[in-house]
Specification:
Length: 282
C-alpha cells in the first residue's frame, strides 16, 4: 500500500462538523469520493490507494459521512440512512463552493450517490457518477445485511468484516488493526447500531420508495461497477439497474464487494476511462 498524499481538514457542513480529505491539483477536475458504510471505515481506510493513484489527475475531496471518522455522530430515527445523509453532503458541496464534480462511491457510499443522482435539483452538482457495489438499496442479500451488522469491536470482528468486503484479510493486518481502532472512536459504534432499535409497542409499515421509477428518468450518466465475487449483492444487479435508462451502464470485474480495497488499480483504470470521456452522455 502506497501512502496517499492528502490534507485532512474539517468544516461545518449542514450544521455538522465534517472531516474530509483533500488531495491533488485544484486546477484539475473535481472528484468526490464517498466511503462505504462498514464499521470502522474512514475516508483513508476506504480510499487511500485510490487517492494515491488518482490525485495526479483530479482535485479530490473525500468526506466522512455522519457517524464515521472525524465527522459528527448523528442518528435520525425518522428517516432512511440515505435521506439523513444526502442533505449533509449537499451542505459540504455548498460550503466548499463546488459547482460541478464527478463522484465515485463504494458500497453504501455508491448507493448514496445513486440516490443523490435522482434528487430534485441535483443538490450534489453531480456531473457523472460511478457506484461500486452500491445499488441504491435493491438487490441486497439479507445474509449480507445481517453479516455487515454483526460487529462487536475486536480484532477478530475487524478481520471478519474486512474479509467479507475485501475478499480476504490475508496480509491486511495493518488494515484490520486500523479498522478495529476506528471502530472505537467515541460514538461511532453507537451511531451505526442505534437504527436497529425498534419501539416494541409500535408497528411501522415500510414507507413507499419510488427510487427505481426516478432512476429510470435520470439525466446523470452513471456507471454501476459490480464485483463478480460479491457476497453481499445479488448477481446481475448492475445489469438489471442499467436497463432502466440509457444514462446508466454496467461493468463487472473479477473482485469481491469492495474492489477499491481489493484491487484499487483496476478501479482507478475504470474511473479514469469513464470520467475521462469527452461526451456527457451515452
Amino acid at each position: 500500500m502506497v501512502a496517499a498524499q492528502f490534507e485532512a481538514k474539517s468544516v461545518v457542513a449542514g450544521g455538522f462538523m465534517t472531516r474530509y480529505l483533500e488531495a491533488g491539483d485544484r486546477s484539475k477536475p473535481t472528484l468526490i469520493l464517498i466511503h462505504d458504510g462498514a464499521f470502522g471505515t474512514t475516508a483513508e481506510l476506504c480510499w487511500n490507494d485510490v487517492i494515491a493513484e488518482l490525485s495526479p489527475h483530479y482535485h479530490i475531496y473525500a468526506p466522512e459521512l455522519l457517524g464515521w471518522g472525524g465527522t459528527d455522530k448523528v442518528v435520525y430515527f425518522d428517516r432512511s440512512p440515505y435521506a439523513a445523509r444526502i442533505p449533509h453532503i449537499a451542505g459540504l458541496v455548498r460550503e466548499l463552493g463546488i459547482d460541478q464534480a464527478d463522484y465515485l462511491g463504494s458500497s453504501f457510499g455508491g448507493s448514496l450517490i445513486m440516490r443523490a443522482t435522482v434528487e430534485p435539483g441535483n443538490p450534489w452538482h453531480i456531473r457523472r457518477a460511478i457506484s461500486i457495489s452500491g445499488s441504491g438499496g435493491p438487490y441486497r442479500l439479507q445474509s449480507g445485511i445481517e453479516a455487515l451488522a454483526d460487529y462487536t469491536p475486536s480484532l477478530a470482528s475487524a478481520a471478519k468484516l474486512t474479509a467479507l468486503i475485501a475478499g480476504s484479510a490475508t496480509g491486511m493486518e495493518a488494515h484490520v488493526q486500523q479498522r478495529h481502532d476506528n471502530s472505537l472512536i467515541p460514538g461511532h459504534w453507537e451511531t451505526l447500531m442505534a437504527p436497529r432499535l425498534k419501539n416494541p409497542s409500535v408497528t411501522r409499515a415500510v414507507p413507499p420508495d419510488d427510487y427505481l421509477a426516478r432512476l429510470a428518468l435520470t439525466s446523470i450518466p452513471s456507471l454501476l461497477l459490480a464485483g463478480a465475487r460479491d457476497p453481499l449483492l445479488e448477481g446481475g444487479w448492475a445489469e438489471r439497474l442499467a436497463v432502466l435508462s440509457p444514462k446508466l451502464a454496467a461493468v463487472t470485474i473479477d473482485a469481491g464487494h469492495e474492489p477499491n480495497i481489493e484491487c484499487p488499480a483496476e478501479v482507478c483504470r475504470v474511473a479514469k476511462n469513464y470520467f475521462g470521456r469527452a461526451e456527457d452522455s451515452k
